[in-house]
Write a structure and sequence with these properties.
This protein is α/β, with parallel strands linked by helices and 296 residues long. The protein has 11 helices and 10 strands. Helix 7 links the parallel strand 5 and strand 6. Helix 10 packs across helix 11.
Length: 296
């Protein structure tokens, strides 16, 4: 089973052009896609009321991929925020995702480690400790440092992930030195494999810390040939795991939703709403003539 979704649901304006569709974006989004990556959890452990609301607003078959809080992956560097001990931080995070777990809507928690998290014994031990703290909760692992998949290391890394029960995250991203990883077409733990599309903007990839990094880091529009190549790769990955969860994160220029829908077409899928047609908001002079169009 291959499921297609986006990173977040708030910024994909092309999905919310039908009358009333922007009033409750997650409800509208779930008519287009069957899964979503929750990124707000990276910046702050979310209040229980938010997680309960999002769980309730989505249909039974909908799945959430929840990004681990940045303090849990070392992005904050230094001591834990507000003096919070690691065990307390993990406990608070796990409590926040309980509604999704109870509803059967949590696909996985995504642990994306920073570019300076390289392949060392101490970092391997940190991964063991993290997985132990998340016992019983499905977890996907994404690296940003090339050392984990260098020649001679890729299979050892995957074997470690299998032994610890981590899901593998396959990334399509710029090949920009040590702070990026190649496409590693493989599965680790059998239950699920993640695929994340970050775009191929090499120059933008190095924009971290710059004022406009959000506008350029993921600025890329995949063409049909690139998506067709990936459709075949996704089919191969599907044979290795029970589920393949695909997330398009290339939204600096607003391309993620169109690329995701094109991927669905390449795979012979249709949105949960049953059609790619969208009824656009009428222009002032055409108030009584709504037209069905194909979203692009």
């Amino acid at each position: 089973m291959i499921e297609i979704g986006l990173a977040g649901w708030g910024d994909h304006n092309s999905l919310y052009t039908e009358p009333g569709s922007a009033k409750n974006k997650l409800v509208t989004y779930s008519n287009w896609f069957s899964c979503v990556e929750v990124d707000s959890t990276f910046y702050a452990i979310q209040p229980l009321r938010n997680m309960e609301k999002w769980t309730a607003e989505t249909p039974p078959g909908f799945r959430f991929i929840v990004k681990a809080y940045q303090g849990m992956t070392g992005h904050t560097r230094g001591p834990a925020p507000e003096g919070q001990a690691a065990d307390e931080m993990f406990a608070a995070f796990k409590a926040s995702i309980a509604p999704m777990i109870e509803a059967g809507k949590l696909r996985a928690v995504l642990f994306q480690y920073p570019p300076w998290f390289d392949c060392t014994k101490s970092n391997v031990q940190e991964l063991r400790e993290t997985k132990a703290r998340m016992e019983g909760i499905p977890c996907a692992l994404e690296f940003r440092h090339q050392s984990w998949f260098e020649e001679g290391m890729a299979e050892r890394t995957l074997d470690f992930m299998r032994s610890e029960g981590w899901y593998h995250t396959v990334c399509d991203e710029p090949q920009a030195g040590k702070g990026s990883v190649p496409i590693v077409e493989a599965a680790a733990a059998n239950g699920m494999t993640m695929v994340r599309f970050h775009g191929r903007n090499v120059e933008g990839w190095h924009s971290a810390g710059q004022p406009n990094w959000r506008e350029v880091r993921y600025l890329y529009n995949y063409n049909e040939a690139e998506l067709a190549e990936w459709a075949e790769r996704l089919k191969r990955l599907e044979s290795m795991a029970d589920a393949v969860s695909v997330i398009f994160n290339n939204n600096s220029g607003g391309h993620a939703s169109a690329n995701a829908l094109e991927m669905m077409k390449q795979l012979g899928q249709t949105p949960p709403r049953g059609s790619f047609k969208i009824r656009r908001q009428p222009e002032q002079l055409e108030l009584f003539t709504l037209t069905d169009e194909i979203i692009e």
